[in-house]
Each structure stands twice: as C-alpha cells, then as structure tokens.
What we know:
Blueprint: E1 5-9, H1 16-28, E2 33-36, H2 42-51, E3 56-58, E4 67-73, E5 94-99, E6 112-115, H3 121-132, H4 138-151, H5 162-173, H6 178-184, H7 191-202, E7 205-209, E8 212-221, H8 228-238, E9 243-250, E10 253-260, H9 267-271, E11 277-279, E12 282-288, H10 292-306, H11 313-316, E13 324-325, H12 330-340, E14 344-349, E15 352-358, H13 359-367, H14 392-401, E16 406-411, E17 414-420, H15 421-435, H16 454-460, H17 463-479, E18 482-486, H18 488-495, E19 502-507, H19 510-521, E20 525-529, E21 534-539, E22 552-558, E23 560-563, E24 572-575, H20 578-583, E25 593-595, E26 604-605, H21 610-615, E27 618-619, H22 626-629, H23 632-644, E28 647-648, H24 650-661, H25 670-683, H26 686-695, H27 710-727, H28 737-747, H29 754-761, H30 765-784, H31 790-797, H32 802-811, H33 815-826, H34 837-842, H35 849-863, H36 870-881
Parallel strand pairs: 1-2, 1-4, 2-3, 4-5, 5-6, 8-9, 13-14, 19-22, 27-28
Antiparallel strand pairs: 7-8, 9-10, 10-12, 11-12, 14-15, 16-17, 18-19, 18-25, 20-21, 21-22, 23-24, 25-26
Amino acid sequence: MTRQMDVIVCHLNADFDCISSMLGAKKLYPDAVAVLPGSEEKKVREFLQNFQPFDIKRASEIDFENITRLIVVDTSNAARVGPFSKILNSDKVKIHLYDHHPSTEDRIRAELEIIEDVGATATIFTEIIKKKRIPITPLEATVLCLGIYEETGSLRFPTTTERDLMAVAYLLRRGANLNIVSDYIKIELSKDELELLNELLSSSVDILQYGIKIKVVKASRREYVVDAAALAHRLMDIEDIDGVVMLLEMEGKVVIICRSRVPEFDVSRLLEKFDGGGHPAAGSASLKGIPLEIVEEMVLERLKKIIRPQKVVKDIMTSPVITTEYNTTIKEAEVLMTRYGVNVLPVVRAGSYYGLLSREVVEKALLHGFGKSRVHEFATTDAETTSPDAPLEEVERIMVEHNQRFMPVIEKGKVVGCITRTDLLRNLYEETLRRKRIEETEVLEKPSIGRNIANLIRERFPKFIVQLLNEAGSVADTLGYRAYLVGGSVRDLLRGEQNLDIDIVIEGDGINFATALSKRLQNVKLVTHRRFNTAKLIFSKEFHPHVPFDNFIVDVATARTEYYERPASLPRVETSSIKKDLYRRDFTINTLAVKLNSDEFGLLIDYFGGQRDIKEKMIRVLHNLSFVEDPTRAFRAVRFAERFNFHISRHTEKLIKSAVKLNLFEKLSGTRLYDELVLIFRETDPIESLRRLGHYGLLSTIHPEIRMNKRLQTLVRSIKDTLTWYNLLFLEEPVQKELLYIMALIIIVPEVDREKVLQRLSIPPRQARLVHETISKVPYIKTRLKTDDPVEIYNILQPYQLETILFVMAISDDRDVQKSISRYLLELRHIKPLLKGKDLIEMGYKPGPIFSKILRSLLEEKLRGRLRNIEEERRFVLDRYGRDLS
C-alpha cells in the first residue's frame, strides 16, 4: 500500500531563515518530513552538524510518488524548490505556502497561503507557535531566532518590522541563546572574503540614472562562495550607493545577488528577467551556461529599463489651483485668499496665465487704499514657471536661487498646478527617509511619508475589495485621473482593524470615473449626484457573489475644497486637489489617503501627520478654526477618542472649550447635534463619553441643566446594565439603544423644559413621539407594575414599545417592577391563544363581537398558566360560552 507523506521544503541554497521556517513548520505539522531540495550555506551546514535541532532529509531520500501534501516555506518561486517543482501542479498534492517575500502573479499556487509583510518567515511561524501555545525548547527558540536575525541583518535592515522584534522578544523568553546566534550570524570577513570584496570593488561599474546610483560588480571563483549575500550587504554599507548588483561566476553558473535601498530600483523587477526571486529590496537568481560578461551586459541593459525616474513636477504638484481673473479687484482677491486659505493667487487673462499676486502685495495695496484697483496692476509677471514633466531638481534649484515660494505649473499657457516650498520640503524629507540607512534604534519607525502599504491592503482586505481597488486604479490611469482610497478604511487599516467603508476620491471628474468603473465591472448600480459631483456604486450578491455583503456601496467623490460663509453653517464645496480635499477633514487621523493608480498602487499619502497621531493615539484638529467652522467636530472628537481609546490633544481640548465660550453651538442645527449624539451612543461607552462631554461643557450646549452629575451617571450606568442584560437574552428584536440614552438626558431636565430639549435636538418625528411618550408615562407604568398578576402585567406593558419598557426597567430601583418587566419580556409577551377565528367558526360560533371576548378570555387564562394545549382551550371555550350556538 502506498504510504502518504507530508513534506516540508524550502528554497535551494538554504539559509537560516529556511532552516528556522522548516522547524516552525515541523511544529505545526509534526508528522511531516523536513527535506532540503539542494545544498545549504556553509554556516547552516556547520550549525546542523553541531546541534541537529530536528531530523532533515535530502531530496534523494524521498519517494515523490508518496507525497500528498507539500509545505513550502520561505519561497513562493517554483524555480527555487529544485526537484519538488515537478509536483507543484499535481492534482494529488496539496500545497501549503508560508513566505515573507511579496506575492507575485506567477507564484506557487497553494491551498493555504500565508504571506506576511515581515522581515523573516521565521517571524510568521513564531507568531503562530505563540498563538497556538505550542511548547518549544530553548534550542528550537534559538533556531527560530537565527532565522530572524539573519534575514533582518540582526534587526538592522529597513525591512525589519515591529513584529520581528516582538517575535525575538518572545523567543528570548523561551530561552533563545544569543551567544549561539552571534556565533553563526557572521559579521567579520575572512581573508578570502576580503580578497573577493576587493576584486568586486575593482571591477565595479557605476550606473547613474535619474539620480539613482547602482553599482554593478563581478568576480569569478572556482569553488563555491558561501554567504555571498553578506558581501552584498557589506558593499552597501561601505559605498554611498542606492543599490548593488553582484555577479559571481562559480561552479559553472553565474549567481546574481541584488540589494536596494530605494523604491526606484525594484530588485524583483530586475530578477524576473532571470527567473530569480525576492522582493523590491533584496533577491537573487542563478544562470547556467551563460558567460559572466554576457550576464553583465544583460544586467546593464535591464537596469536601464527598470530603474524608474525620480519624481517630476506633476507627481507632487497641487492641482487644480485657485486663480483670479485679470480684472478682479484687490479687495476681491483678498476675500478669495481668506476664503481658500492661500497666500498666492495666479492671475489669468482669458484663461491663460498672466502673473502672480501675493498676500503681502494685497495687504500693502489695501493699506494704501488701492482696494478697488485691478489685480493685474500689482501682479508679478516675471516669476519663474515650470511644466508638468520638468524634473524636481530643476524646480528646486530655481526656487532656491530666485527665492520664489510659489511656482505655477503651466501647460499650453494654462495654469494646471503649482509647486510650493512646502511641497519641495516634504518631497525632500521623503527622499531622505527612503535613502537613509535605518539604524537599529529606528527599526520601529517606518517613514510616515512615501510608505507603500500595498501588501497590507492585500493582507487585510477581502480579495473582492483588493480587485476592486486595482480596477479603480486602472480606470483612473485610462482617464488620466489620480485615484485615492481615503477615510476610515485607511485609518483603520493602519490601526489593525478592518473597515469596509470604501471611499474613493478622484483628482478629475468623479462621476465620469464612477461611470467608467461601473461599465468595467458590469452589473453595478450607479447613483450620481451632479450637484456635489459624487457617485455611489452599489454591488449586489446576485451579480457579484464575492462582495462582502449584499448592496455593498463604494462612494466616489471628486477632490474638493470647502469654505464656510459663517460659523456653524454648512460648507460651500468646490473642486480642488487631494491635498485640499484632505485638509477639509476633521482630524489628522482621517486625512490619510492611499494612491490607487497602477504605477504607485498602495503609496500612502500623509500630509498632516495622521500616522504619527495614530501611533501616539491622539485626536488632533488640522487648524485653529476647525470648531468655529463646524462645532459638531467637538462631539466627534469625543466619539473617536472613546471609540479608539485615544486621547484628545491639549491644544484641541483648548479649542473645544473656546468654542463653547464663544456660544458657537447655539448656531448649530438640532439635526446635526442629534446625529452626533446618536453615533456617540451607538459606538462608544456612553458613561465615559458623557463624562468627557460634560468636562468640555458640551452637554450644557443641549440644555443648561444637563450635566454629568451623580444622578445622570447612575441612570446611564443602569441603562447600560439593562441593555447588557437584554442582549444576553439573545432575542431577535433589536433595540434603539441611543434613544434610551437620549431619554436619560431629557428626563433629568425640569419637566417644563423637556419640550425645549426635544425641539433643540430636532429628533425625527417617530422617535420624538416615542421619547415623549416614554418620559411622560414612566411614573404611571412604575406605579401600576407593583403586582404579581400576569394578566395585569401584560395589560400594562403590551401597548408600549420595547425601548419604553427597557427604559422603565433601567430607571426603576424597585425589584418588583424589574421582576415584572423581566417576566413580561421573557415569557408573557410571547403568549398567544392557539385557537384562531377560523377555529371558532369550525366549532360553530358565528363571527362577531363574541370573538374578541372569547380570544381575550383565552389569552388571560393562558397568561395565568391554566391552558396548556389547544384541546384545553376548546374545552375552556365550550365550558365558558356554552354549546348553544344559535
């Protein structure tokens, strides 16, 4: 009989991450056989000979016909598993895949795929072992530690993540021996390695393309060179370069080893030409039968094609730009500058660029009484301009040399964008972070700007959403637009939570984009709002079975800016750029965006420090007039702080209190205030939220008598306990819990003022009637419920909605009242006679008023527990109402 076999395999020329991952897999698949597909690095071989942490076989010892499951670790490239590649497509073999290298389209297809964006595959296995509480020995912890230390350069490489550090901390607690780790994670170079390093440096060819410096080095050796990857890292350390390509000819083949520290040089793109593997920062390939010089020529030619240029003007420019007409007055220009928060206005004449007008010039002109003069009389007409495709280096030089703060971007005479000094500084900061050698103490600090989170999107979002976002980027490319994922989904992605509220912002025409996307995806309902230039895409399960839920909505908006004509009013909205669009949002944590266009899919945009505030768990407004423009943001700040367990920044707290002192909330519409309270009560712990609202004086903006005193706190806690009790009953009837808390706010107000509070909150009519009825009936219901009679309990409570009943239960401290309500909800309210009208007709009774009387009598008897089945009900009716049916 054929013996079934599970096999664990890694990539050729196994390193410590391979061995540690195989050990980790062995802990998850204890009956599996660990097999090396080929050779291993010298240090790995020495370690295995000295310690033998687990049994490892060679491929020649395995009968491939018996393999029913193949567990592939530390690679997803079919060419790198040696002889095992021939069974990857077998119907008889199930594939499980664990890897930390980025997924590619031509990767090994597996039944189970766990591909994580971490520094080492050993980290993935360590996390699983920890989660499943699988015991490991100190030696096994050391092996796993070796894999992480090797792959992350002893936690120094830019690819190191917080998860790698946490995994190492766990392994150290489990007895990992760092003395052993340091013995095998080699740092010092031998004499032979120094000679090879010198030969590599003497043969180097420097490639400088688009400001990116790549060093290509080569050497030949008769014998096999172990730990060649360490030499590549050493070259990166000693040379001021952005990347290295090392070519080593040995044992009849040429090995290509690449390292990169900039995104413009994507190693994986270079190596895919040579069937190699790796990720954008590191990888390798092996070629047989091709001379070293020919491989070098192929590499140099390939480098010219795959090195992406550095950014040009259109990559960072703000677009569209607020402009002013040639004949606008100076006073009107000042209003425009204040309304849109800009300090420079391009002046246009008949649609074409004319010059620049600065706030400094406007203020001086007004000071001298030239408010009615035309802007063209004061505009600077000799300022430098640029074009969308100009290199940023050139723009930076011109702006520095000419001391120019603002440069218009002109195309065919039209103003299509602008570059400011802030834009250049931010871009310079981004480039510095991406090129900077990350020291060990900085490993946890990922750059807040320019970070690509494509892998995080693929990991955290359902496959349908990932495909949808890719399609959105593709459609935007076709239309010449820029598309961004914005809002809560991006914020929560970085917080480690899934949020499927998909909001897409378009620099372009949002409706045109949504129309094109709906046609691309097919069978999508499209709803447009031309006034706001927004659209909704609605997906049904019928046509899109993989959608997260039926009638799934994707919101599409055109990038816009807004201004407020007066405090607390609704904003006026106009088309703008993504930067202006994000600036109009409430808090920094909500200003993050992710680019969806194909060339930079996953690029995180963070203009206002959103990542920093998420990390520091901080709620912070974007500017000092935030609460003046929209006072509801104060309530929202409390909601987010409680929902995410964040704290509100000291300056933001100060601005909230100032808004209260300025009586800005008096101008706030009741509807908006009510909506914010509803969200607070739905999403947060109401006790803490009300405590914060009271601390900032926000409760008194509803009514002066509403304060978070002991009475309100006791009532709110009682409502919370009552709702917890009700939820534990697992009854299907939902409850509008927010209404109970709003009732609590109103009932503590003097009776003569309660109607004013209802009007202040502009509660929708149906809910307002329920709130009013509940509060007015509470004393009546509480007084009458002091009874044990089930019929009376039923008659008292049956006319009222669930919210009223639960509120009475919460507000009452009488155990008899609470007991009666509990009995009603659990038992009495579901009791109904089994006999129906048609049954009475069959029994010979004629329809009429007698039917109501009979059914009411049946209900009362059943409530008292005297009738257990339909036969007893029939006998009761006949006994009570007789057999004389005439």
